[in-house]
Amino acid sequence: MELEKISDQELVERYRKGCQASIEALILRHKDKVYSYILMTVKNTAIAEDIFQETFMKVIRSLDSGRYQENGRFLSWVIRIAHNLIIDHFRKQNQMSLSSNDEYESDLFNNARFSGPTVEDDLVREQVHRDVRRLVDRLPPEQREVVILRHYVGLSFKEIAAHTGVSINTALGRMRYALINMRKMIRETDLNLTLK
C-alpha cells in the first residue's frame, strides 16, 4: 500500500512501530502548509527554515516519547508546535533587542524575471502582496491568526477552530471582523490593491 494514501493517524502508528518511511511521508504531506504558516508569521526565510526544522524535530521527539495523543488532528498539532516555537523565537529576539527591516534577501532588480515585458506587472503584484501582508500584520492577534491559517496555510474553518480552541462560529466571526478591519484600513490609507 502506498504511504501517500494512508491516513495521518495510520502513518503515526506505523512510525511508532518502526517504519521510518511513515514519518517521511507525514513530513512530505504537510511541509508546504507548515512552512507557509511559519514564513508568513516570521517573514524571514532563514528563520522560517530553522523553525520548520525545529518543528519537525520536536514532532519526532514527541512521537518517540509517546506524547502525541491520537485525535485525528495531526496537522493542527504540528501547527501548534510551530506556533509555540515562533512565540519562543520572538521572545528571544525581544530579549536580545535585535531588529531587522530586511524583508527580502535578494536584490529586487537583479532578477531574470524582471528583464521581460512583464516587469511592471510583477512590481505591482509584489507591492500588492506586501501591502496585504502589512494589513494582515496590523490586525488583532486572533483575527491575524485566522487569516493566516485560512488563506496562507489553507486550513478549513473546522481545523482552525480545533487549532485555536474556539468554536467554528467564533473562527468565522474572527475572519469576518478581520475582513471588515482590513477594508477599513484600505479606505483610511487609500490603498490601491488592484492587480492589472
Percent range of helical residues: over 70%
Major sheet: none
Total helical elements: 8
Instruction: Identify the quaternary structure here.
Output: single chain
Annotated CATH topology of the largest domain: Rna Polymerase Sigma Factor, Chain: A
- SSE arrangement, N to C: HHHHHHHH
Strand content: under 5%
Terminal CA distance reads: 47 Å
Stretches where pLDDT is under 50 for at least 5 consecutive residues are 97-101, 103-118
Rg from alpha-carbon coordinates: 19 Å
Q: Care to count the β-strands?
A: 0
Shape: globular
**Considering the protein shown, what is the CATH homologous superfamily of the largest domain?**
RNA polymerase sigma factor, region 2, helix turn helix motif
The CATH C-level class name of the largest domain = Mainly Alpha
**Count of the domains:** 2
CATH architecture of the largest domain: Orthogonal Bundle
Mean pLDDT: 81
The helix-and-strand class reads mainly alpha
